[in-house]
Structure formats: C-alpha cells, structure tokens
From TrEMBL:
First and last residue of the signal peptide: none
Active site: H257, D308
The organism's place on the tree of life at top rank: Bacteria
Gene Ontology terms: cellular component: cytosol
Catalysed reaction equations from the record: oxaloacetate + acetyl-CoA + H2O = citrate + CoA + H(+)
Family label: Belongs to the citrate synthase family.
GO annotation terms (biological process): carbohydrate metabolic process; tricarboxylic acid cycle
Organism: Guptibacillus hwajinpoensis
Alphabetized GO MF terms: citrate synthase activity
Protein name, per record: Citrate synthase
Pathway(s) served: Carbohydrate metabolism; tricarboxylic acid cycle; isocitrate from oxaloacetate: step 1/2
InterPro entries, A to Z: 2-MeCitrate/Citrate_synth_II, Citrate_synth-like_lrg_a-sub, Citrate_synth-like_sm_a-sub, Citrate_synthase, Citrate_synthase_AS, Citrate_synthase_bac-typ, Citrate_synthase_sf
Length: 371
C-alpha cells in the first residue's frame, strides 16, 4: 500500500461540476472570471445543479422558488433563543440549525430525484435566513422575513440588517457568492460526498460539510484573516508581524493552497472589491495592509493569497460581523455541496479508502487488575 498524506494529488472521483486545470477555475466549463463579472448568484446555482445556464423563464421560476422557500420554521428561531447565545459561534449554530431543519422537512428521507431537487431548493433558500436570524437573535432582535422581490444577495443583507441594502453592497455580495460557490473536491465538498455516498440524506451531507468548512485550514480562515489584520492594525506593523510569524513557523491565514501553485484566480476579484469598498468606507488601511501582506508573503514564502484573504476586508467593509464571514461562505458553498451531492447520488458508490496500519502488533490482552 502507498499512503498519500492528506490525499494530496489523489483523484477520488470524476465530476462535471467544476474544474481546476493549470490554476484556471471553471464552473460547468464557464471561466470563473466570466461568471464573477457577469452572472447573478441565482444563475450560478442553477448552472451548478442543471449543467446549463437558465433561460429567462427558467431563471424567473427558479428565483421565485428560492424566494418562497426562504422562511425558516419558527421552532428553529425559538431553539436559537435557547442556545447559550453569547458563547455559540455562528458556524456551530448553523451546523445545528441545518441538522434541525431536517426534522421539519417531511421529505428529509425521501431519496427520489424529485424530492432531492425540492430539498436542494429549500436548503439553499433557508441557509441564509438561518445565518441572519441567528445574528439578529443574539443581538436581541427579531428575525426579518425575507422579501420575495429581492435578489438572493439583497435578501441576505436585508434579513441581516432589516434595511434595503444599497446597490454597491448587493453587487459585492453577489460577486462574493459567485466566487465561493464551488471548488472541485475541496475538504467540505469531499465530506458531503463521503457522507451521502452511504446513501444518507441531503441534510446529513450538508451538515457534515458545514462542520468541515468551519475549520481554520478551510473556510474558517476568513475570520482569522480579519483577526490578524486587526492585530497588525497598521501598514508599518505588517513587516515586523510577518517576520515574527515566519520565525515562529506560524501559518499566515489566507495564504497557500493545496491545488493552486501560481495563485487563486478568485483572489484578484476580491482584491479589487476590497480596494473599492475600503475606498468607499474611508478605511483604506485594511486594503493597504492586505496588499503589503501579499507582497511580503509572496516574495518571502512564495505563497499567494487564497479566496479567504481579501474576502475578509471585503466583508468587514460591508459591516458584516467577523464571525459571520465563514457562515457567509457556507451560504454560497451550499450550492456546490448540493451540486456534488446530486452528482454523487446519480452515480453512487460507497467511498471507503484504506489506512496503512502503523500501530502496535502482537499484543496480548492483560486483565485490568494486572496492568
Ligand atoms: C477556502 C479555502 O479553504 S482556502 C485555504 C484557507 N486556509 C488558509 O488560508 C490557512 C493557511 N493555509 C494553510 O494552512 C495551507 O496553505 C493550506 C491548508 C491551505 C494548504 O495546505 P497543504 O497543501 O497541506 O500545505 P502544507 O500545510 O503542507 O504546506 C506546505 C508548506 O508550505 C507552508 N505553508 C503553507 N501555507 C502556509 C501559510 N499560510 N503560512 C505559512 N506557511 C505556509 C507549510 O508550513 C509547509 O512548509 P514546510 O514544507 O516547510 O513544512
Ligand atoms: O479547494 C480547496 O482546497 C479550498 C478552496 O479554495 C475552496 O474550497 O474554495
């Protein structure tokens, strides 16, 4: 047996959803630069699940279906109120709430193709409402009912703040959602596929994926990037902070990637958004510190920024709480998880690799009194 640590370079499945070849990312054959510049998130979800962009009628119908399914059961909100709210991370709340949503879905264990597609829409529609409801509940406010005439991106901001968002914020969130939607066999997507390959239900797959996304080596990095920028606090402190981190062999959050070697194609879009939004808020230091960090880490370590790096200053500039950054990633990535879950179901085989045993051998049981 040969062992590959972290399954690096191992091709574990075929997929026709997204691809990374020579550091170029495509969703269903469309370059991410094209989609980030032109597409709505609703179109991208449809694309990921249906292998084609929707026509106008299909898009209108799909958007309406998302809108009518966005409300979450009152029981979920009541349960949130009972959480030890000041100690609960929103990713933990999201993980629990998504698992709980299954209890209120009569089709949760219906594995037919039609029921799975209906559940896909319900999950995609409700997850942003769960995130924003939790944010409001912990502030002692009532959740805001999503509006049927707002886009997916606008509803996220509206249900978060209770105010109709400005176009510039909606455009930024839409682009961030498009950029985060899918990414081949990343850790959380792989988790979702492993889970449902046992023929477990879609809620289980998405709940498992949220757990994987939460970690700091994956989606949880974006919140840590903001914590790092806040600690550094000025452009002058960037070099000394990084030199110290390098000496202590610390990982710099938001840099490096398992697959990209020359750079993450999503980062340049987020960098530009960070520049524009920090210009608008007047807090240009976040962008200036970020570009200085990119210069030093790239020059000294050869590590380019990944998607999580500039998304931090983008979300901060939009006034989003730092611990909601990773849940916002999940709001987008659930589209990819579901695409992969549907693909897994359509051509399923149990995912069960082997482990090379390196533990003790030839042990003989000794009774507890004699140990
Ligand atoms: C959406 C996403 O999930 S994007 C990734 C988000 N995660 C982060 O930003 C966390 C910081 N980055 C990392 O920890 C890593 O680069 C990962 C987890 C993304 C990829 O990890 P791997 O492919 O396993 O690379 P690995 O951790 O083995 O790194 C290889 C070498 O580069 C170094 N390295 C990699 N990333 C970093 C970093 N961010 N800061 C400092 N050194 C790093 C490692 O220390 C290691 O050095 P060594 O060979 O001298 O021991
Ligand atoms: O692909 C990965 O390993 C991590 C990543 O960038 C993502 O999930 O967007």
């Amino acid at each position: 047996m040969t062992t590959t640590r972290g399954l690096e370079g191992v091709v574990a499945t075929t997929s026709s959803i997204s691809s990374i070849v020579n550091d170029v990312l495509t969703y269903r054959g469309y370059n991410i630069d094209d989609l980030a510049t032109n597409a709505s998130f609703e179109e991208v979800i449809y694309l990921l699940w249906n292998d084609k962009l929707p026509n106008k009628t299909e898009l209108d119908q799909f958007t309406a279906e998302l809108a009518v399914n966005a409300t979450i059961p009152k029981e979920i909100v009541d349960q949130m109120k009972a959480y030890p709210i000041d100690k609960v991370h929103p990713m933990a709340a999201l993980r629990t709430a998504v698992s709980t949503l299954a209890l209120y879905d009569e089709e949760a264990d219906d594995m037919s193709e039609e029921a799975n597609y209906r559940k896909a829409i319900r999950l995609q529609a409700k997850i942003p409402t769960v995130v924003t409801a939790f944010s409001r509940v912990r502030e002692g406010k009532d959740p805001v009912e999503p509006k049927k005439d707002l886009s997916f991106a606008a509803n996220f901001l509206y249900t978060l703040t209770g105010e109709i968002p400005e176009d510039v914020a909606v455009t930024a969130i839409n682009k961030a959602l498009v950029l985060h939607a899918d990414h081949e066999l990343n850790a959380s997507t792989f988790t979702a596929r492993v889970c449902v390959a046992t023929l477990s239900d879609m809620y289980s797959g998405v709940t498992a994926a949220i757990g994987a996304l939460k970690g700091p080596l994956h989606g949880g990095a974006n919140e840590r990037v903001m914590a790092m920028l806040s600690e550094i606090d000025s452009v002058d402190n960037v070099e000394p902070y990084l030199q110290n981190a390098f000496e202590n062999k610390e990982k710099i959050m938001g840099f490096g990637h398992r697959v990209y070697k020359t750079g993450d194609p999503r980062a340049k879009h987020l960098r530009e958004m960070s520049r524009k939004l920090t210009d608008l808020t007047g807090e240009t230091k976040w962008y200036e510190m970020s570009t200085k960090m990119e210069e030093v880490v790239t020059n000294e370590k050869g590590l380019p920024p990944n998607v999580d790096f500039y998304s931090a200053s983008v979300y901060h500039s939009l006034g989003i709480d730092h611990d909601l950054f990773t849940p916002l990633f999940a709001v987008s990535r659930v589209s990819g998880w579901i695409g992969h879950i549907l693909e897994q179901y359509s051509n399923n085989r149990l995912i069960r690799p082997r482990a090379e045993y390196v533990g003790s051998t030839n042990q003989t049981y000794v009774s507890v009194e004699n140990r």
